Amino acid sequence: MITFSNIYADSFIKSHEYEQLKPSLSIAHEQLHNQTGVGANYLGWLDLPLDLNQDEWEQVQEKANEIKENADVLIVVGIGGSYLGAKAIISALTPTFKRSDLGPEVVFAGQHLDGDYLNDMFEAFQDRSVYVNVISKSGTTTEPAIAFRFIKRWMEERYDKGASKRIIATTDAKKGALRELAETEGYDTFIVPDDVGGRYSVLTSVGLLPIAVAGIDILELLRGAEQAKKQFDVNDLEQNEAYQYAAFRTLAYKKGKTIELLATFHPKLHELSEWWKQLYGESEGKDGKGLFPASVQYTTDLHSLGQYVQEGQRTMIETVLNIRSQTKTLHVPSDATDLDGLNYLSGKSLHDINQKAVQGAMLAHIDGQVPTSLIELDTLDAKHLGALIYFFEKACAMSGYMLGVNPFDQPGVESYKRNMFALLGKPGYELERQTLEKRLWE
Ligand code: PA5
């Protein structure tokens, strides 16, 4: 279902180096599976596909059905792990150009602080039937909280008392401002499990509700993850391809590479790259360590960043994410005049041409001394994406442990928040405000 290959990097990382890494891999595996590593109370995602009980996903599906019946639009309010997973899966599995006959459109808000975006949204959806799913594990994150204040007022102006029946909150079972607000307003709620951090939460109700509203089979997604769990639980580098990927990037980092590019050749995978960047960036980038996760979307970026990848600083590795087969594809028509000289491609499928671009780019980048690895899915569907999520999560946790960091916290995210609160005049931050303003105006 999912395969990984590092043979395209074997002139850079030799087989004996993989051998030497095996003890570290084994230790990381034991730490994860025996819950003895750092951040061990955030390992709920490891067993999620098996633990999610029938009642839970049935409730999610039931609510999704209600929204599908009554809404034209679902606005998902959240930031980071509270929206990226759902956005990734929905973009990958629904038509690029939305059709109104395919159920509600799922859109996102609260992932930044831009007023134009909210204004545009209110204008666009003024005459459409709207539901809202506000998602925050902590229930206190500033960006979604501010956006929700606007959206809540807009919903109440439109639906009066009926607004609370159209708002669903996904948050902690007991604590946080959003939990209190939801209880006071009488919103339906879904719970984010305590032991699953934001960026590992796409297979909880955080991701599953918006994904189900978009018409995607959430059971298939979970089945794919369950299959991947079995496949990627084995403590054996030769058999476990998630561990091979973790080993590839760990060794590349040890040998001085500083950037990992995730390269996709399908625009529908663009948002998946965004989810992947958060997963790896927030999990590994700490204590002055970690590969910087960046993404490119080929062949588009072969005409921009491709130049740098081929000939710029040799600081990067590339991980190509490829889809082997496409169910619906187009075939190049023949043309009597052949003025564009493309008749040599007549009858070929666009997918096959894209696959030649994958191969051509990989070989060129290998020649350009970019150590390259290849992750392949048989096809793009819910089951494969469920498996891919689990593959990346497992490899990320393993990489983090081998790097010697806690892959489940994000202390660095607090620094900008403290500054922003101080500059906004939040009570309790008076001293910091003075210091910061001095630095800005001097
Ligand atoms: O991975 C994480 O934990 C973070 O990216 C969070 O998902 C993000 O900060 C949003 O947090 P919350 O869901 O508490 O609003």
From TrEMBL:
Sample GO molecular function, one term: glucose-6-phosphate isomerase activity
PROSITE patterns: P_GLUCOSE_ISOMERASE_1, P_GLUCOSE_ISOMERASE_2, P_GLUCOSE_ISOMERASE_3
Pathway(s) annotated for this protein in UniProt: Carbohydrate degradation; glycolysis; D-glyceraldehyde 3-phosphate and glycerone phosphate from D-glucose: step 2/4; Carbohydrate biosynthesis; gluconeogenesis
Enzyme Commission designation: 5.3.1.9
Record family assignment: Belongs to the GPI family.
Location relative to the cell: Cytoplasm
Name recorded for this polypeptide: Glucose-6-phosphate isomerase
